[in-house]
Design goal:
By secondary structure, the chain is of the alpha+beta class. The protein contains 6 helices and 5 strands; from the N terminus they run H-E-E-H-H-E-E-E-H-H-H. Strands 2-1-3-4-5 form a 5-stranded antiparallel β-sheet, sandwiched between helices. A hairpin with a 2-residue loop joins strand 4 and strand 5. Helix 4 packs parallel to helix 6. The chain starts with a helix and ends in a 10-residue tail after the last helix.
């Protein structure tokens, strides 16, 4: 019985939304892509959400609503939020162009589809995370990262 109650608590804490992952978060000059709504919520700080630092979109280009409650972040889809894949694709393309399409792993950015750009950004983030982890284990500063 206790296990069922614990599972119920976990389900209540995980945001329930019909946002379609991956979730794209813009803010502080960065664009981050998360495989799940829960992962995006865990990565965001409530104080930054309250300050309006972030914008969020699902993979269809729908604008998402970032909400905080007791220092936890949740993601909801506003009632009239329309899918705008072309708008999201333009924003991703602009971001990838600044970062460098070759660094992200896209040979032809002009013709890259939304799903190709999302997949490439996820792979790019994984490579950066592994590299950061390696630098940390070696006692190196991320500032010394030549690709940063």
């Amino acid at each position: 019985m206790e296990d069922e109650a614990d599972r119920h608590k976990v389900q209540e804490q995980v945001p329930v939304a019909d946002a379609q992952p991956p979730i794209v978060i813009y803010g502080d000059g960065l664009c981050e892509v998360y495989l799940t709504v829960a992962a995006a919520c865990q990565a965001l700080e409530a104080v930054d959400v309250n300050d309006g630092l972030y914008e969020a979109f699902d993979c269809t280009g729908r604008a998402l609503l970032l909400v905080t409650k007791q220092h936890a972040v949740s993601i909801d889809v506003p009632p009239n939020s329309a899918a705008e894949p072309a708008a999201l694709a333009r924003r991703l393309r602009d971001y990838i162009q600044v970062v460098g399409a070759d660094r992200v792993g896209i040979a032809d950015l002009v013709d890259a589809s939304l799903s190709v750009m999302l997949d490439a950004l996820l792979s790019f983030q994984r490579r950066k995370a592994r590299k950061s982890s390696l630098y940390g284990r070696l006692g190196c500063s991320r500032i010394s990262d030549p690709e940063r």
